[in-house]
Amino acid sequence: MVSDPRAKTSRPAHAVLAVVFQVRGGRLEVLLWERALDPCAGCWSLPGGELAGDETLEQSIRRHLAAKVDVRELSHLEQLETLSDPDRTPLRRELATAYLGLVPRDAEPALPSDTRWHPVDDLPVLAFDHEPVVLAARERLRGKLSYTNIGFALAPETFTISELRDLYRAALGHEISATNLQRVLLRRGVLKVTGERREPGPAGGRPAAVYRFERLEYQITDQFAALRPRRAAMPPGARPRRGRA
Description:
It is built from 4 helices and 9 strands. The protein has 245 residues and is an alpha+beta fold.
């Protein structure tokens, strides 16, 4: 009896995937590569590949990112989730461990022709279960921007508060006050003034102070904090509702 080549093996394979984010042109974008072969030919996928027998999960995803999409220097990498649905891929039983990776705004990895950055709020058709993985990674990043110093992984080495605000706004998906962001991050000891000043652009204004992150490694700074959107202004004569905020 000839076995079905599409039949799934009883022992699952183990793959790794990476959701790599960068703020580009004021938008949070994710790195994807276009599949040339079935299944899902023509769809876009998260970079990754199979776990080798002599490597850890992190070693594996770093190897695949370097070999397939030429991303060698990540400012932050953390494990996101493990996907175990038996039907997540059509050819075989495959577990996949997904990672969240961040690239600073001023980095420009050399990408192969089948790999591009895509806005997270305007994704193309993704293969398998990759779209919910991307969205889960975005929610993880948004949460951690509130209570950790993870903004260092999106920012260049030095920046003005307005530039940092633009990065946070792109990642969070809502407006955020530069003044409030400065106050919060300075109070937590996350930012450091460099003593430099940046000349204003064509619109004019005063020279802006230049900052850097105090630490370039992940740190929980305020585990109960949340950077939320501003509340909409109440119409004249309206009364606030009673109850919990």
